[in-house]
C-alpha cells in the first residue's frame, strides 16, 4: 500500500530496533507487513540492504508428519555448540491454514516447540496463511527478511502441510527439508510430482513406527529414477518460470548438475533421534550451494520471482485505485452476460490511463 | 491485499490439564475471524509473556481451573508490563470465585468469564475492547 507514511520514508526507530534484534520491534514489523499497513514497504526497503545473511530452511510435509517437532529438535540442536561450531541463533516462522469461511485461524505450532521457550536466541512467529495457496502466507518471505535483517543465523519456515502442491517453499528457502512418515509408501508414487521433488534433505520421521525402512527404500528408488533430471528442473519448475526470470535467465552453474543427491534420514523428532544427521545435511547443503555457485543463481531466480509478484500486486492496486466501482460493476455484468470476454475487459481496464 | 486481524494468544498457565474450555474458546474466536495462537497446557507466566511478545498479539486469554489464578495472573501481568505490552487486552476464564474479581480487575485484567458464559459474549467483549 503506497500510503502517506511510505512517501514520508521508513519509520527509522522501528528499523533501528529491528536491526538491533529487539523482539518487540521484530514482532511489530512482521505484523505491519502481514497487515500490509502503511509504512510496510518503506520498512522493507530500509531492511533490504541488511538481508541475505541468514540461511533459510524450509520444512514441509503432510499434516501430522511432525514438522513442528522436527523444527523444535533442529533448533535445539543448532542452539548448542557442536565441536568447533558456535551456537546459532534461530528464527522460526510457522504457518497454519486460515479458515476459508471465517477468515480466522488456529495457530498451534508453538505447542510442539515448548522446549525453545525462555531461549533469547530463538524467536518463534506463528502465521496464518490468509487465503494464500502453496503452503506459505503471502507475507512469509517478507517476514523472513525481517528475521534475516535482525541477525538470526538460521530462519526456519514451516509450511501449512496441506500436501502435494506445496512447492512455494522451494522459492523461499535455501534448503528444503521434506518430512515423510512411514505407512505412506503407496502414496509416494502418487505424490512424486509434488513436494518430493523439491527436497534437498528427506526426513522419514516417526521412524520408530513400522514401515520406516520401506519408506526410505521407496524414496531411494524415486531418487534413482530422477537422477540429474526432475530435481534440477522442478526446483524452480513451472512456478519459477516467471516472466521476469525468462527475460533475464542466467545459465545455472554446471557444477550443480547431479552434484547433490538429497540424503534420506530416519528420525524420531520427539526423541531427537537422527536430528543431528539432518542438521549436518543442512549445513552440508549450504556449503554445496556456495561452492557450486548455485546459491547466487537461486538468489537471482528468487529476486526475479519476487519482482514479478510485486509488479503484479502493484499493477492490480493501480488499476483498482483508478477504476470506479460503477465501471467495474458494469464490466463484470457484461462478462457474465457474455457481451465481453474477461481478457478484453482486463485490457480495457489496463489501458484506462 | 489484507486487513488487520485480531491476534489472540490462548494459554493455560499452571498445572491443571483441563483444556476443553480453552479449546472451545479458541475455536469460537477462530470462527469469529480471529487468529488464535494456541500454546497448550502447563504454561509458565514467562512462556506466556514471551509468546505474547513474539507473536505481537492484541489479546491474551488465559484459563485456570486449579485455583492458582491469584498466584499466576499477577505474574503474567507484571511480565507483560516489563515487555512494554501494557496495552494488550487480557481476558481470563475458568473457575474464579466472585470475591477475586475486583482484585483481578485492579491488576488490569479486562474481562473475567466464568462457567456458563456464552462464547458470543466473549467475542463481543474482545471486539469492543481490543486496543
Q: What report would you give on this structure?
A:
The complex is a heterodimer of chains A (353) and B (131). With 353 residues, chain A is of the alpha/beta class. Chain A is 46% helix and 12% strand. In chain A, helix 5 (67-79) packs across helix 12. In chain A, 43% of the residues are buried. The model of chain A is unreliable at 1-8 and 228-242 (pLDDT under 50). Chain B has 131 residues and is α/β, with parallel strands linked by helices. Chain B has a single domain (7-129), classed as Rossmann fold. Helices cover 41% and strands 24% of the residues of chain B. Chain B has 5 helices and 5 strands, in the order βαβαβαβαβα. Chain B has helices at 20-31, 45-55, 69-82, 101-106, 119-129, and strands at residues 7-13, 35-43, 59-64, 89-94, 111-113. In chain B, helix 1 packs across helix 5 (119-129) and helix 2 runs parallel beside helix 3 (69-82). Chain B is globular.
List the helices and strands and how they pair.
The complex is a heterodimer of chains A (353) and B (131).
Chain A: H1 4-8, H2 12-19, H3 23-34, H4 40-47, E1 55-60, H5 67-79, E2 90-96, E3 105-107, E4 122-128, H6 140-149, E5 154-158, H7 169-172, E6 175-180, H8 185-190, E7 201-204, H9 212-226, H10 230-235, H11 243-248, E8 264-266, H12 275-292, H13 294-322, H14 325-336, H15 342-350
Parallel strand pairs in A: 1-5, 1-6, 2-4, 2-5, 6-7, 7-8
Chain B: E1 7-13, H1 20-31, E2 35-43, H2 45-55, E3 59-64, H3 69-82, E4 89-94, H4 101-106, E5 111-113, H5 119-129
Parallel strand pairs in B: 1-2, 1-3, 3-4, 4-5
